[in-house]
């Protein structure tokens, strides 16, 4: 079972303790566990919209796509590039913006197969995503919450994963232990290029994100993973489209052209960047 341990109240940052099926802080704030075991730690005052993050439809599409294992090479790439010294029994992992939980679930299975136990927490701002995630792996602590204000004490994790997500580096740094690692996974220049050629009249030039570095972190290593996969039905193509930003950005003509296809071979081009938390600077007087 998930432990839901060592979390903090999203309203006043004091420690939360599990009392029966609720997390409670000393100030009397109470957060009830859902039936499936997740807990919503996103207080109304921190919400920018009524239903933030991915919609129910997007979550259903992403789950349908990811369950076909087309992106398993990304799981393998994460595990094979994980700096060895930082992958040990008891490693505490946060997947920040975990979506419907595919990666944390697969990473847990792979680590178990190599007899490494990990303490895993998955957090996402979308309650739909976390509700779906909480049904798949009960040994993970699943939280509705925001990267902008993680409901955890300082130094809570040894590794933070941010996969195709919305990183908030100051919070990631705070939540990481001194020797902690951050993994950013993002799309590279040729990612889904065949799809983009259909959807857009011109392809924008690729601009690498965070090329100037990331505040509070040092880049340790960068890995590019490319592979191809085939979608064999219009439904599969629409599921992939629905889980990408292209769904809203593409032109009407582009989306209509895509509707004519029953299969497509696609390139995945993924960048994995591992960062080490920078040691705090000590001011010598
Ligand atoms: C492109 S999806 C990626 C999901 C998952 N990492 C994956 O690769 O399958 C981005 C996710 O970030 C979530 N999200 C958006 N803003 C967020 C925030 N401020 N804090 C945490 N999650 C957020 C969305 O709800 C969505 O599930
Ligand atoms: Zn409180």
From TrEMBL:
Domain of life the protein comes from: Bacteria
Q: Which Pfam family, just one, is annotated for this protein?
A: Zn_ribbon_RlmA
Methyltransferase domain residues are 93-171
Q: Which residues form the 23S rRNA (guanine(745)-N(1))-methyltransferase N-terminal domain?
A: 8-50
Which PANTHER family does the protein's record reference?
23S RRNA (GUANINE(745)-N(1))-METHYLTRANSFERASE, METHYLTRANSFERASE
- From the Swiss-Prot or TrEMBL record, give the protein name: 23S rRNA (Guanine(745)-N(1))-methyltransferase
Q: Which organism is it from?
A: Marinomonas pontica
